[in-house]
Specification:
The protein is of the alpha+beta class and about 400 residues long. The chain is about 50% helix and about 15% strand.
Length: about 400
Amino acid sequence: MASSDPCEDVCFRYFSSTRLATRKILGCLDPSSYLIRILWFLLLIAWGVICLSVQGSSAAEPNFMIRARIGQKLVEGQPLNWSAQMVYLLSRDGQLVTFAPDEASDYEKTAPKFSGYSTAKMRAGLYKEFGGDYEISGTRHYLVVHPKGQKDLWADRFESLYRSFVHYFIVRGFQPQEPKFPLIAIVFRTQGEYQRYAIKEKSYLGANTLGHYSPRTNRIVLYDSTGGRGTSNLETGDWSQNADTIIHEATHQTAFNTGIHTRFSGVPRWLSEGLAMMFEARGVWDSRSYTRESDRINVDRLKEFKPYAAKRRKPGSLKQLIARDQLFRRDSSGAYAESWALSHYLCETRPQKYSEYLARTAARPIFENYTAKQRIEDFETTFGDDWKMFEAQFLRYMGKL
Protein backbone atom coordinates (compact mmCIF):
# COMPACT_ATOMS: atom_id res chain seq x y z
CA MET A 1 0.00 0.00 0.00
CA ALA A 2 1.38 3.41 -0.93
CA SER A 3 2.20 5.90 1.83
CA SER A 4 0.16 9.10 2.17
CA ASP A 5 3.44 10.98 2.54
CA PRO A 6 5.16 11.53 -0.86
CA CYS A 7 8.56 11.64 0.84
CA GLU A 8 7.90 8.26 2.45
CA ASP A 9 6.80 7.02 -0.98
CA VAL A 10 10.13 8.01 -2.54
CA CYS A 11 12.00 6.35 0.34
CA PHE A 12 9.95 3.18 0.03
CA ARG A 13 10.57 2.92 -3.72
CA TYR A 14 14.30 3.56 -3.20
CA PHE A 15 14.59 0.91 -0.50
CA SER A 16 12.54 -1.60 -2.50
CA SER A 17 14.66 -1.17 -5.62
CA THR A 18 17.87 -1.32 -3.57
CA ARG A 19 16.69 -4.49 -1.86
CA LEU A 20 15.86 -6.07 -5.25
CA ALA A 21 19.27 -5.16 -6.65
CA THR A 22 20.97 -6.54 -3.58
CA ARG A 23 19.06 -9.80 -3.93
CA LYS A 24 20.19 -10.14 -7.55
CA ILE A 25 23.80 -9.52 -6.59
CA LEU A 26 23.83 -11.68 -3.48
CA GLY A 27 21.16 -14.21 -4.39
CA CYS A 28 23.65 -17.02 -4.63
CA LEU A 29 24.72 -16.56 -1.00
CA ASP A 30 23.16 -17.97 2.13
CA PRO A 31 20.72 -15.25 3.33
CA SER A 32 21.66 -15.94 6.95
CA SER A 33 25.37 -15.46 6.25
CA TYR A 34 27.53 -12.93 8.11
CA LEU A 35 27.90 -10.70 5.01
CA ILE A 36 24.20 -10.64 4.14
CA ARG A 37 23.11 -9.79 7.67
CA ILE A 38 25.54 -6.86 7.83
CA LEU A 39 24.43 -5.53 4.43
CA TRP A 40 20.71 -5.75 5.23
CA PHE A 41 21.13 -3.97 8.55
CA LEU A 42 23.27 -1.18 7.10
CA LEU A 43 20.80 -0.84 4.21
CA LEU A 44 18.05 -0.23 6.74
CA ILE A 45 20.00 2.63 8.29
CA ALA A 46 20.92 3.99 4.83
CA TRP A 47 17.23 3.96 3.93
CA GLY A 48 16.47 6.15 6.96
CA VAL A 49 19.21 8.60 5.99
CA ILE A 50 17.90 8.79 2.41
CA CYS A 51 14.43 9.58 3.77
CA LEU A 52 15.86 12.43 5.82
CA SER A 53 17.66 13.77 2.75
CA VAL A 54 14.46 13.70 0.70
CA GLN A 55 12.71 15.61 3.48
CA GLY A 56 15.49 18.18 3.69
CA SER A 57 17.06 17.01 6.97
CA SER A 58 20.77 16.62 7.56
CA ALA A 59 21.93 13.14 6.67
CA ALA A 60 24.87 13.65 9.02
CA GLU A 61 22.52 13.74 12.01
CA PRO A 62 19.82 11.08 11.49
CA ASN A 63 16.91 11.34 13.89
CA PHE A 64 14.79 8.30 12.89
CA MET A 65 14.33 5.21 15.04
CA ILE A 66 14.94 1.54 14.38
CA ARG A 67 14.16 -1.59 16.37
CA ALA A 68 16.27 -4.74 16.43
CA ARG A 69 16.76 -7.88 18.45
CA ILE A 70 20.26 -8.16 19.90
CA GLY A 71 20.60 -11.64 21.30
CA GLN A 72 17.57 -12.08 23.59
CA LYS A 73 16.99 -8.35 24.03
CA LEU A 74 14.77 -6.11 21.87
CA VAL A 75 16.17 -2.56 21.56
CA GLU A 76 14.72 0.54 19.94
CA GLY A 77 16.33 3.89 19.38
CA GLN A 78 18.22 6.32 17.17
CA PRO A 79 21.32 5.14 15.25
CA LEU A 80 24.03 7.68 16.02
CA ASN A 81 26.99 6.14 14.22
CA TRP A 82 27.58 2.91 12.34
CA SER A 83 30.00 0.88 10.25
CA ALA A 84 30.37 -2.72 9.16
CA GLN A 85 32.02 -3.37 12.54
CA MET A 86 29.88 -1.49 15.08
CA VAL A 87 26.55 0.30 15.52
CA TYR A 88 25.99 2.95 18.21
CA LEU A 89 22.31 3.25 19.08
CA LEU A 90 20.78 5.79 21.46
CA SER A 91 18.09 3.79 23.23
CA ARG A 92 14.76 5.38 24.09
CA ASP A 93 15.69 5.23 27.78
CA GLY A 94 18.79 7.36 27.15
CA GLN A 95 21.39 4.59 27.30
CA LEU A 96 23.94 3.95 24.56
CA VAL A 97 23.69 0.46 23.07
CA THR A 98 26.57 -0.87 20.98
CA PHE A 99 26.54 -4.00 18.85
CA ALA A 100 27.99 -5.49 15.67
CA PRO A 101 25.55 -5.41 12.69
CA ASP A 102 25.64 -9.20 12.35
CA GLU A 103 24.33 -9.51 15.94
CA ALA A 104 21.06 -7.82 14.96
CA SER A 105 17.96 -9.64 13.76
CA ASP A 106 14.27 -8.76 13.24
CA TYR A 107 15.26 -5.18 12.50
CA GLU A 108 12.97 -2.49 11.14
CA LYS A 109 12.55 1.28 10.96
CA THR A 110 9.86 2.25 13.49
CA ALA A 111 9.50 6.04 13.34
CA PRO A 112 10.81 9.02 11.34
CA LYS A 113 11.72 10.93 14.52
CA PHE A 114 13.35 9.92 17.79
CA SER A 115 11.28 10.10 20.97
CA GLY A 116 12.34 9.03 24.45
CA TYR A 117 10.25 6.79 26.66
CA SER A 118 7.58 8.40 28.81
CA THR A 119 8.14 8.83 32.54
CA ALA A 120 5.67 6.00 33.21
CA LYS A 121 7.54 3.64 30.87
CA MET A 122 10.89 4.54 32.42
CA ARG A 123 9.52 4.08 35.94
CA ALA A 124 8.17 0.63 35.05
CA GLY A 125 11.56 -0.37 33.67
CA LEU A 126 13.33 0.77 36.85
CA TYR A 127 10.91 -1.19 39.06
CA LYS A 128 11.63 -4.27 36.98
CA GLU A 129 15.38 -3.70 37.27
CA PHE A 130 15.63 -2.93 40.99
CA GLY A 131 12.78 -5.00 42.44
CA GLY A 132 11.08 -4.44 45.77
CA ASP A 133 14.04 -3.33 47.91
CA TYR A 134 13.97 0.21 46.56
CA GLU A 135 11.40 2.91 45.86
CA ILE A 136 11.26 5.25 42.88
CA SER A 137 10.38 8.90 43.37
CA GLY A 138 9.70 11.32 40.54
CA THR A 139 9.94 15.06 40.00
CA ARG A 140 9.53 17.13 36.86
CA HIS A 141 12.92 16.08 35.46
CA TYR A 142 14.09 13.18 37.64
CA LEU A 143 13.33 9.59 38.51
CA VAL A 144 15.31 8.62 41.59
CA VAL A 145 15.79 5.04 42.77
CA HIS A 146 16.45 5.10 46.52
CA PRO A 147 16.07 3.04 49.73
CA LYS A 148 12.51 2.77 51.00
CA GLY A 149 11.26 5.64 53.11
CA GLN A 150 13.82 8.20 51.87
CA LYS A 151 11.84 10.02 49.18
CA ASP A 152 12.22 13.44 50.81
CA LEU A 153 15.99 13.06 51.05
CA TRP A 154 16.77 12.56 47.39
CA ALA A 155 14.26 13.41 44.64
CA ASP A 156 13.68 17.03 45.60
CA ARG A 157 17.40 17.56 46.13
CA PHE A 158 18.22 16.47 42.57
CA GLU A 159 15.42 18.59 41.13
CA SER A 160 16.61 21.62 43.10
CA LEU A 161 20.12 21.20 41.72
CA TYR A 162 18.71 20.95 38.21
CA ARG A 163 16.81 24.25 38.63
CA SER A 164 19.90 25.97 40.04
CA PHE A 165 22.00 24.77 37.11
CA VAL A 166 19.51 26.03 34.52
CA HIS A 167 19.10 29.37 36.32
CA TYR A 168 22.87 29.86 36.47
CA PHE A 169 23.22 29.58 32.70
CA ILE A 170 20.07 31.49 31.75
CA VAL A 171 21.24 34.63 33.60
CA ARG A 172 24.51 34.35 31.66
CA GLY A 173 22.80 34.31 28.28
CA PHE A 174 22.91 30.56 27.65
CA GLN A 175 19.55 28.87 27.03
CA PRO A 176 19.73 25.22 28.18
CA GLN A 177 17.60 22.66 26.32
CA GLU A 178 14.98 20.40 27.89
CA PRO A 179 16.26 16.82 28.38
CA LYS A 180 14.99 14.24 25.88
CA PHE A 181 14.06 11.81 28.64
CA PRO A 182 13.70 11.70 32.44
CA LEU A 183 17.06 11.91 34.21
CA ILE A 184 17.87 8.82 36.27
CA ALA A 185 19.65 8.80 39.63
CA ILE A 186 20.28 5.61 41.59
CA VAL A 187 21.11 5.83 45.30
CA PHE A 188 22.28 2.55 46.79
CA ARG A 189 22.02 1.76 50.48
CA THR A 190 25.62 0.56 50.89
CA GLN A 191 29.01 0.91 49.28
CA GLY A 192 29.04 -2.80 48.47
CA GLU A 193 25.81 -2.59 46.47
CA TYR A 194 27.14 0.45 44.64
CA GLN A 195 30.43 -1.23 43.73
CA ARG A 196 28.70 -4.40 42.51
CA TYR A 197 26.45 -2.32 40.26
CA ALA A 198 29.44 -0.34 38.91
CA ILE A 199 31.23 -3.58 38.00
CA LYS A 200 28.09 -4.88 36.30
CA GLU A 201 27.80 -1.75 34.13
CA LYS A 202 31.57 -1.91 33.43
CA SER A 203 32.41 1.33 35.20
CA TYR A 204 35.90 0.84 36.60
CA LEU A 205 36.23 3.10 39.63
CA GLY A 206 38.54 3.66 42.54
CA ALA A 207 37.86 1.93 45.86
CA ASN A 208 36.93 5.22 47.56
CA THR A 209 34.61 6.50 44.83
CA LEU A 210 31.29 7.70 46.29
CA GLY A 211 29.42 8.08 43.02
CA HIS A 212 29.69 8.69 39.30
CA TYR A 213 27.85 9.78 36.17
CA SER A 214 28.11 7.45 33.17
CA PRO A 215 27.75 9.05 29.71
CA ARG A 216 27.03 5.55 28.35
CA THR A 217 24.04 4.82 30.62
CA ASN A 218 23.21 8.50 31.22
CA ARG A 219 22.68 7.68 34.90
CA ILE A 220 24.01 9.08 38.16
CA VAL A 221 24.90 6.24 40.53
CA LEU A 222 26.01 6.71 44.14
CA TYR A 223 25.52 5.36 47.64
CA ASP A 224 24.44 7.02 50.86
CA SER A 225 27.76 7.49 52.64
CA THR A 226 25.90 8.24 55.89
CA GLY A 227 24.57 4.67 55.89
CA GLY A 228 21.06 5.95 56.43
CA ARG A 229 22.10 7.81 59.59
CA GLY A 230 22.10 11.24 57.99
CA THR A 231 18.34 11.70 57.84
CA SER A 232 18.05 14.62 60.23
CA ASN A 233 21.13 16.32 58.81
CA LEU A 234 19.82 16.07 55.26
CA GLU A 235 16.45 17.44 56.27
CA THR A 236 18.04 20.49 57.87
CA GLY A 237 20.32 21.09 54.91
CA ASP A 238 23.59 19.78 56.39
CA TRP A 239 24.18 17.04 53.84
CA SER A 240 27.94 17.52 53.49
CA GLN A 241 28.80 13.80 53.57
CA ASN A 242 26.95 13.27 50.29
CA ALA A 243 26.79 16.83 48.96
CA ASP A 244 29.95 17.18 46.88
CA THR A 245 29.38 13.86 45.10
CA ILE A 246 25.73 14.62 44.36
CA ILE A 247 26.42 18.15 43.12
CA HIS A 248 29.43 17.14 41.03
CA GLU A 249 27.75 14.19 39.31
CA ALA A 250 24.40 15.97 38.91
CA THR A 251 26.24 18.81 37.17
CA HIS A 252 27.80 16.34 34.72
CA GLN A 253 24.43 14.73 34.02
CA THR A 254 22.55 18.01 33.60
CA ALA A 255 25.26 19.52 31.39
CA PHE A 256 25.23 16.50 29.07
CA ASN A 257 21.42 16.53 28.81
CA THR A 258 20.72 20.24 28.36
CA GLY A 259 23.13 21.07 25.53
CA ILE A 260 25.89 22.60 27.66
CA HIS A 261 27.99 19.55 26.71
CA THR A 262 27.23 16.92 24.08
CA ARG A 263 27.51 13.25 24.91
CA PHE A 264 30.02 11.32 22.77
CA SER A 265 31.56 14.50 21.27
CA GLY A 266 34.90 14.35 23.09
CA VAL A 267 34.41 17.24 25.52
CA PRO A 268 37.82 18.32 26.90
CA ARG A 269 38.16 16.88 30.36
CA TRP A 270 39.28 20.16 31.93
CA LEU A 271 36.06 21.76 30.70
CA SER A 272 33.63 19.11 31.99
CA GLU A 273 35.43 18.59 35.31
CA GLY A 274 36.04 22.30 35.81
CA LEU A 275 32.34 23.05 35.41
CA ALA A 276 31.33 20.26 37.83
CA MET A 277 33.81 21.47 40.46
CA MET A 278 32.66 25.06 40.00
CA PHE A 279 29.14 23.99 40.99
CA GLU A 280 30.41 22.44 44.22
CA ALA A 281 30.66 25.99 45.65
CA ARG A 282 27.46 26.93 47.45
CA GLY A 283 27.36 30.34 45.77
CA VAL A 284 27.03 28.56 42.43
CA TRP A 285 24.61 25.69 43.17
CA ASP A 286 22.56 27.94 45.49
CA SER A 287 23.23 31.41 44.10
CA ARG A 288 19.90 32.79 45.32
CA SER A 289 20.84 32.20 48.97
CA TYR A 290 24.59 32.84 48.76
CA THR A 291 25.25 35.96 46.74
CA ARG A 292 28.76 37.08 47.70
CA GLU A 293 31.65 36.63 45.29
CA SER A 294 33.53 34.61 47.91
CA ASP A 295 30.63 32.12 48.05
CA ARG A 296 31.40 31.14 44.44
CA ILE A 297 34.92 30.00 45.31
CA ASN A 298 35.47 26.26 45.73
CA VAL A 299 37.63 26.56 48.83
CA ASP A 300 38.92 22.98 48.73
CA ARG A 301 40.06 23.30 45.11
CA LEU A 302 41.66 26.68 45.81
CA LYS A 303 43.66 25.09 48.64
CA GLU A 304 44.90 22.49 46.15
CA PHE A 305 45.68 25.02 43.43
CA LYS A 306 47.85 27.32 45.56
CA PRO A 307 50.64 24.80 46.33
CA TYR A 308 50.37 23.30 42.85
CA ALA A 309 50.88 26.72 41.24
CA ALA A 310 53.76 27.53 43.61
CA LYS A 311 55.73 24.27 43.40
CA ARG A 312 54.70 21.85 40.64
CA ARG A 313 53.15 23.90 37.89
CA LYS A 314 55.37 24.56 34.86
CA PRO A 315 55.22 27.86 32.91
CA GLY A 316 53.08 27.52 29.79
CA SER A 317 51.28 24.42 31.09
CA LEU A 318 47.88 26.03 30.55
CA LYS A 319 48.11 25.44 26.81
CA GLN A 320 48.86 21.76 27.42
CA LEU A 321 45.81 21.44 29.69
CA ILE A 322 43.62 22.90 26.93
CA ALA A 323 45.12 20.72 24.21
CA ARG A 324 45.26 17.32 25.92
CA ASP A 325 43.98 15.36 28.92
CA GLN A 326 47.38 13.88 29.80
CA LEU A 327 47.87 16.02 32.92
CA PHE A 328 45.01 14.12 34.57
CA ARG A 329 47.16 10.98 34.33
CA ARG A 330 50.46 12.60 35.34
CA ASP A 331 49.25 14.85 38.16
CA SER A 332 45.60 14.23 38.91
CA SER A 333 45.22 16.66 41.82
CA GLY A 334 47.01 19.41 39.91
CA ALA A 335 44.88 18.85 36.81
CA TYR A 336 41.64 18.99 38.77
CA ALA A 337 42.74 22.07 40.69
CA GLU A 338 43.76 23.98 37.58
CA SER A 339 40.61 22.90 35.71
CA TRP A 340 38.51 24.40 38.48
CA ALA A 341 40.69 27.53 38.67
CA LEU A 342 40.49 28.17 34.92
CA SER A 343 36.73 27.56 34.82
CA HIS A 344 36.18 29.87 37.78
CA TYR A 345 38.38 32.56 36.23
CA LEU A 346 36.59 32.44 32.88
CA CYS A 347 33.12 32.46 34.43
CA GLU A 348 33.93 35.38 36.73
CA THR A 349 35.85 37.55 34.27
CA ARG A 350 34.60 36.53 30.79
CA PRO A 351 31.16 34.94 31.22
CA GLN A 352 29.96 35.74 27.69
CA LYS A 353 33.10 34.28 26.11
CA TYR A 354 32.86 31.24 28.37
CA SER A 355 29.29 30.63 27.17
CA GLU A 356 30.43 31.00 23.56
CA TYR A 357 33.18 28.45 24.14
CA LEU A 358 30.75 25.97 25.70
CA ALA A 359 28.47 26.37 22.68
CA ARG A 360 31.41 25.86 20.31
CA THR A 361 32.55 22.63 21.94
CA ALA A 362 28.96 21.35 22.27
CA ALA A 363 28.45 21.80 18.51
CA ARG A 364 31.21 19.34 17.63
CA PRO A 365 30.30 16.12 15.77
CA ILE A 366 29.82 13.05 17.92
CA PHE A 367 32.20 10.07 17.76
CA GLU A 368 34.86 12.21 16.11
CA ASN A 369 38.37 12.64 17.52
CA TYR A 370 38.90 16.11 18.98
CA THR A 371 42.55 16.66 18.15
CA ALA A 372 44.95 18.82 20.15
CA LYS A 373 45.19 21.19 17.18
CA GLN A 374 41.41 21.59 17.00
CA ARG A 375 41.14 22.13 20.74
CA ILE A 376 43.76 24.88 20.61
CA GLU A 377 42.08 26.52 17.59
CA ASP A 378 38.67 26.54 19.27
CA PHE A 379 40.09 28.07 22.44
CA GLU A 380 42.02 30.72 20.50
CA THR A 381 38.98 31.58 18.38
CA THR A 382 37.08 32.42 21.56
CA PHE A 383 39.73 33.84 23.91
CA GLY A 384 42.55 34.99 21.60
CA ASP A 385 45.97 33.58 20.78
CA ASP A 386 48.20 35.56 23.16
CA TRP A 387 48.84 32.67 25.53
CA LYS A 388 51.54 34.44 27.53
CA MET A 389 49.27 37.38 28.32
CA PHE A 390 46.27 35.14 29.04
CA GLU A 391 48.22 32.94 31.46
CA ALA A 392 49.70 35.96 33.27
CA GLN A 393 46.23 37.45 33.78
CA PHE A 394 44.87 34.11 34.92
CA LEU A 395 47.62 33.54 37.50
CA ARG A 396 47.41 37.14 38.74
CA TYR A 397 43.66 36.76 39.32
CA MET A 398 44.08 33.44 41.13
CA GLY A 399 46.89 34.88 43.25
CA LYS A 400 44.51 37.46 44.72
CA LEU A 401 41.95 34.89 45.92
